[in-house]
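It is worth pausing here to work through a concrete case rather than discussing structure prediction in the abstract. The textbook approach is simple: state the sequence, then state the predicted structure, then interpret. We follow exactly that order.
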Amino acid sequence: MTSFVLNRLYSSGGPEILHGTLEVTDGVAHHFLTNGYEDLEAGLETGGLATFQACGISIALPKRGSDGKQDLKFALCNIDGSVSGFLRAALKSVREISLVYREYISTDMAYPSKILRYKVKNGSITATEAQIVAGYFNLLETLWLRFNYTGEFAPGMRYQ
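Step two, the predicted structure:
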């Protein structure tokens, strides 16, 4: 039933509404956000329930392509400062921040119809808004072959 409704919504619309939500977490603190004027209670993929706090969010989902730049960009209003303060502290202390985008159909709030997971790459926070860029995988900050072959790691090697 859900896939039929979702296919119809993507192709031609209908009476249902798609609700986009964000979860911003560093593994300890979790912030659940949704765009709009009313809080939204919805089921998670883990079986639990979450209350998504209503706030002003602008979400730009990544376009499909093979260029390797599939970044999610979002801006959120900084009226109460709780989430932007959390983001500012986490970015300053270089903590790993995860972002989960979930999309719900208004007639079925028990489980998300779409789940996308990202890692926050960078961001900027002003007095009025927080702008964050997140991606699937940060290739530029990874090592290849994943290890630095130094004298400590591989004692038989020496630099010439």
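Step three, interpretation. The first helix runs from residue 2 to 12. Residues 2-9+16-141 form a domain with the Pnp Oxidase; Chain A fold (CATH 2.30.110).
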